[in-house]
Amino acid sequence: MIRVRLRFTGRVQGVGFRYFAQMNAAQFHVTGWVKNMYDGSVTAEAQGTKKQIEDFIESMKHGHRFMRIDHVTAEECPLCEGEKDFKVKY
């Protein structure tokens, strides 16, 4: 099990990005959260197996027709024990 902090830049706000992330997290059985940032980026933390996280990130990169990801950064962070779902934070 791993947990990564992700930062997405591009056209990622106002295009349903957070809900797309939540849908993909459910598909790949990833827990964590996603949140819009004041600088126009989106930050997320995702927790699961290495394969689940890789699949989640790859699906996010493909996105949908309204969003565009220019850059993704990922760094490991501490696990969040007992986490059960993936939430949209406001």
CATH class, please? Answer: Alpha Beta
- Classify the beta-strand content into a percent band: 35-45%
- Mean pLDDT, as a whole number? 97
Tally of distinct domains: 1
Q: CATH topology, which one?
A: Alpha-Beta Plaits
Strand order of the largest sheet: 4-1-3-2-5
N- and C-termini, Cα separation: 26 Å
Task: Describe the global form.
Answer: globular
Q: Identify low-pLDDT runs.
A: none
Give me the Rg, rounded.
12 Å
Q: Percentage of helical residues?
A: 25-40%
Structural class: alpha+beta
What count of helical segments does DSSP give? Answer: 2
Order of helices and strands: EHEEHEE
Number of strands: 5
Keywords: Hydrolase
Protein name: acylphosphatase
Active site: 18, 36
Pfam families: Acylphosphatase
Question: What is shown here, in short?
Answer:
The protein is of the alpha+beta class and 90 residues long. Helix content is 27%, strand content 40%.
Structure description:
The protein is of the alpha+beta class and 90 residues long. It has one domain: 2-Layer Sandwich (Alpha-Beta Plaits), CATH 3.30.70. Helix content is 27%, strand content 40%. It contains two helices and five strands, in the order βαββαββ. It has a five-stranded mixed β-sheet, covered by helices on one side. Strand 2 and strand 3 form a beta hairpin. The N and C termini lie far apart (26 Å). The relative contact order is 0.35. The mean pLDDT is 97. It is an enzyme of class 3 (hydrolase). Keywords: Hydrolase.
